[in-house]
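sorry for the late reply, my laptop died twice this morning and i had to redo everyting from scratch. anyway the thing you sent over, i finally got around to it. pasting the sequence first so we're on the same page, its 190 residues, then the predicted structure underneath. double check i copied it right bc i was rushing
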Amino acid sequence: MIDMEKIEKLEKAISFLNSLSNGIDPLTNSAITADTFKREELVELITFSSTILTDVLNNKGEVIQVVRPAKFDSKFVNIANVKISQKPIAISTLVMNINKESTNRKMRNLGASIIKNWLVGNGYVTEEKVAVLKNVNELRLTEKSQEVGIIEESVVDPSTGEVRSAVKLTDKAQNFIISNLATIISENQN
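ok and here's the structure:
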């Protein structure tokens, strides 16, 4: 939110610009002279106004206020445009595809942990700590996994070089998650 000092400065700048556009020196209320634009207060307010207008221009004409981003909301996602891969993909890749279709730039991105936690909480996968070269949490399949198209594949961990199992989403699982996205989000926010 804009602080009061900036609001007052903006109001003063608007008043000054309006006076100038009418040929009036805003500081003396007389006709503009060569000295009008040499006054420090006027130059400062014109520069400030220019900065604000540049910000608006850079935002394609949209006046924005810097506020904390809103929580992710699936109603601001073009669900029909989310890319569904024919090859199995990681949860994080699906999340990236979902975030690409967000229509609200002021909203936080969806995090992969939200989907992972929902899958664990609803019994589609389990999570267990595995001691390899480093302790990691790995997802494991359940009977429900196969029903929705969640599979396991062997992958090489780039940080350790170890081969381990990784949960992947087939196109069926990707569609299942997307069709349940509103539920996933609402259950996460409760």
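The first strand starts at residue 125 and ends at 131.
thats about all i looked at so far, will dig more tmrw
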